Amino acid sequence: MRLPILAVCHLGLRWTVMSNLVARACGAVLITAVVLKLQGWSSGTSGVNYFSPAVQLAALEAEALVGLWLLAGWARHGAWLVAVGLFAALAAVSLYLGLIGQSSCGCFGRIRVSPWESLVLDGVCLTGLLAWRQRVDATGGRRPAVIGIGAAVVLGLIGLTLLTRNGVGETWLSRARGEWVAVSPAESDLGEEPAGKVVTFRIEVVNRSGRDVRLIGGTASCSCVATDDLPVTVPANGSVSVSGRILFSGTPGQFKHEYEFFTDLPAQPRVGGRIVGRVGS
Predict the structure, then answer these.
(1) CA distances (Å), 115 to each of 68, 111, 204, 279, in order?
(2) Does the reported pTM lie above 0.70?
(3) Residues 6 or more apart whose Cβ sits within 8 Å of residue 21
(4) Which of 12, 40, 96, 170 could bond 110 through an S-S bridge, CB–CB 3.0 to 4.6 Å?
(5) What domains lie within the chain, and their CATH numbers?
(6) Residue 242 contacts residue 228 (beta carbons within 8 Å)
(7) Are 259 and 272 in contact (CB under 8 A)?
(8) How many CB atoms lie under 10 A from the CB of residue 237?
């Protein structure tokens, strides 16, 4: 009888070790992504973002909290449940970005990773978590810890969302990324128009620095011009609206054009955005 019992104990130990290794590996992936995002923001090389500052802050906080939770090994079953939900959500976002044709998911700061590569990584983490799921503590002794940590995460996200709705969080994020001047929104969707039509649009440029910033020029191409109103001065802690023109051309389908303004701010000589639209058939 002792041999079967020892075998079962050995298998249980191996299962626990694998579960802990997978959990900590997933935690390391999340923390690495958070560090790379922060580095990209601080250097101003993170590229164009696809989501609002509120969503970016909430995602950053969620990844950091869940990553630290997994690495610490507290309330392992609760951490497993939250991590599965988070990686499933990240995989869904990567799939969405891949389907709409984005070249980079923006998940790792200045390191350009395609949404499909990010989807594979999220899928590997999710598969590992599901294959070596944490076992529930039969005594239920860790349930209060699970509830407490889960409540802290939820309350933190709610508080962060309320903060960003007042504009404070958006300003903090922009300054953390070194973006004293920014285009709002970073991506403008002009909808669908027939080929050959010229569309005029407006771009709001926001200045969160303590000094006036002058837009002295901008990029232009044969299909997209964003320099009609330049040069122009953006007042300190204010904004201006700049007009642009774009020609809907090419084969039917979605297109995107990136543009940049040149500033006289030494800390940020360039500020960029993106125009997307669809050429009708």
Answers:
(1) 24, 12, 28, 24
(2) no
(3) none
(4) 40
(5) 2-176 (no CATH), 181-280 (2.60.40.10)
(6) yes
(7) yes
(8) 13
